[in-house]
Amino acid sequence: MSTENDHQLRDAVMTEFTAAGYSLDQIKLILDRQEGLKHESEEMLTWIKIHRRHLLPETLAEYNLNWDWDENDSNYLLIKEWVDEEFQDELFEHTKRLRDKMQVEMRNLTKFYKSREAKEFSCTKRDPDPRRMYRLYR
After folding, report:
1. Other CB atoms within 10 Å distance of the CB of residue 88
2. How far apart are CA 92 and CA 99, in angstroms?
3. pLDDT of amino acid 132
4. CA 118, chain centre distance (Å)
5. How many Å apart are CA 86 and CA 34, to the nearest integer?
6. C-alpha angle with apex 92: 86 to 94, nearest 5 degrees?
7. Which of 41, 42, 79, 124 would give a disulfide with 48, using CB separation of 3.0 to 4.6 Å?
8. Which pLDDT score, from 0 to 100, does residue 58 have?
9. Using an 8 Å Cβ cutoff, are 70 and 76 in contact?
10. Distance between CA atoms of 77 and 54, rounded to whole angstroms?
11. Confidence check: pLDDT of 137 > 60
């Protein structure tokens, strides 16, 4: 169907350009350039733009995906190759696991203490590093 439309368009361009005074060689050169541009646009790569709240750069590095930050908005990552939806879901799950792991590690680093004077306030205090404690008491 598209080839039939292409032939009709090509014939219409030929008649228009010959009526305008172009030679057949010039018309063929123009049509060949147009075909070349059409094929280039079909072969262009499609990149994926994802907000960084959904995907961590560590995930992309782990899966060896070529990526870069978006130049217009630094909140977005550009994956420089096509990734189908199933693989995207896998990447999102990996990011979720990484974030959960980071939250658990952060919880282990801090303890919550309540002051006796003001029970409505709480502050965080880091546990001392056991390696430093060893040096102090040695």
Report:
1. 15
2. 11
3. 57
4. 47
5. 36
6. 105
7. 79
8. 92
9. yes
10. 10
11. no
49/78 Cα distance (integer angstroms): 5
55-78 burial code (b ≥16 CB/10 A, e <16): bbeebbeeeebebeeeeeeeebbe
pLDDT at 84 over 70: yes
**Beta strands 67-69; 48-51: pairing state:** unpaired
Element holding 11 (H helix, E strand): helix 2-20
pLDDT, tens digit (0-9, with 9 covering 90-100), for 44-72: 567 889 998 999 999 999 999 999 999 99
Find the mean pLDDT for residues 99-120.
67
57 contacts 84 by C-beta, under 8 angstroms: no
For residue 64, what are its two tokens? Answer: 């060896």
What is d(CA 71, CA 77) in angstroms, rounded to the nearest whole number?
A: 9
CB 80 within 8 A of CB 55: no
- The closest alpha carbon to 49, from 18, 93, 23, 83, belongs to 83
pLDDT recorded at residue 59: 92
Q: Could you tell me how many residues make up the chain? A: 138
CB atoms within 10 A of CB 27: 18
